[in-house]
Amino acid sequence: MTRVGVFGAGYGAYCLIPAFQLAEGVEVTSITATSSERLAAAAQKYGVRNRFEDWRAALGSDEFDIAVLAVPPLAQQTIALSCLKSGLPVFAEKPLAVDLDAAEELSLIAKTNSVVTAVDFQFPEHPAWRKCKALLHQHELGKISYVVVTWTGQSFDNARSITGWKTNSAHGGGVVSHFGSHSLHYLEWFCGPFTITSANLTRREGHFAPGETFANISFEFENGAVGAAILSNDTAAGIGHRLDFYCEQGRISLVNANKGYMGFELSLCRSGSDREEHVAYECDLPKLNAETDQRVAPVSRLAQRFIDSIRSGTEMKPSFSEGLKVQQLLNKISEISHP
User: Are 223 and 245 in contact (CB under 8 A)?
Assistant: First the structure.
């Protein structure tokens, strides 16, 4: 039985605990959080027997075999560093760290100490996304020419004017880290390596927090395709999350029109036709009740792969290496937009 220790009683409780509880041969044995009320509620709801309010006490307890982190980036890089130095496998959130130096240190120590790591880049675990990638790689509509990402909506924190790390770029927040870290990962997952060619980050006049709320980013892939991403986490009545791949003979689209985090539909439109063709795909994720967060199912696939990698010694992806690649791109965007 592999024992899991979860750090964080927000997303860590309502998504990561149930996701890891779905993995085979796993028991979530401890939870750590600074809020005693949230800590007690999460432990009771999910049947976690050990509670800690201090992460150092948790790491010194020998109550778990792997650490699963869902804490702000600054805290994450500190806790992860301690875990890696002691050889403890780490499942982390995005962005990996607040800055590039910290991400480089984490990735290096993980490699040096041969510690298995993972980053919660969850979108590629969605079966619609995997089907989309298969269509692209099979050249269903020919080679990719252009890629357009549109992801606009209003985050929980922005909608309620909550001042915290998610609305502060210096602490690992802002729309590029909040939304864009996912996009930077999945763009390479779909189409291969790319470079950032331009970036413009801004926020609306009078916004309550220092984090950017709007980003316009252009990029060029090594395979010759080019593209752009429009991201906003402060857009009332935003359109949701959409990816359009314009190929030689038409377009392939993944569209989530504000149907929760994972309500994507896959379609294509062939050149010379105005008919949108729905593309069916096999859903091999766990079937959960309607009250469960939509992210639990795809994250459970990541969790199982992470556990299997630890047990078998096989390579885990996405790992801290992929987290570092995203951090490098985030750093490049910052350099371009703030010369």
Answer: no
Q: Stretch 100-109: mean pLDDT, rounded?
A: 98
pLDDT at 339 over 80: no
Model confidence pLDDT, tens digit, residues 209-243:
999 999 999 999 999 999 999 999 999 999 999 99
What is the residue type of 221? F
- How many Cβ atoms sit within 10 Å of the Cβ of residue 95? 26
* Residue 17, beta-bridge partner list: none
d(Cα 49, Cα 29) in Å, to the nearest integer?
Answer: 6
- CATH code of the domain made up of 2-122+294-319: 3.40.50.720
If 0-12 CB within 10 Å is exposed, 13-18 middle and 19+ buried, where does residue 1 land? exposed
**Domain extents for the chain?**
2-122+294-319, 127-284
Nearest Cα to Cα of residue 231 among 324, 137, 152, 329: 152
∠ CA 85-179-310, nearest 5°, is 35
pTM of the model: 0.97
Q: Could you name the CATH architecture of 127-284?
A: 2-Layer Sandwich (3.30)
Residue 186 has pLDDT above 70, yes or no: yes
And the tokens for 9?
């009683």
CA torsion angle 130 131 133 134 (round to 10): 120
Please count the residues of the chain: 339
Paired tokens of 175 = 């729309």
Amino acid at 84: L
CB atoms within 10 A of CB 277: 12
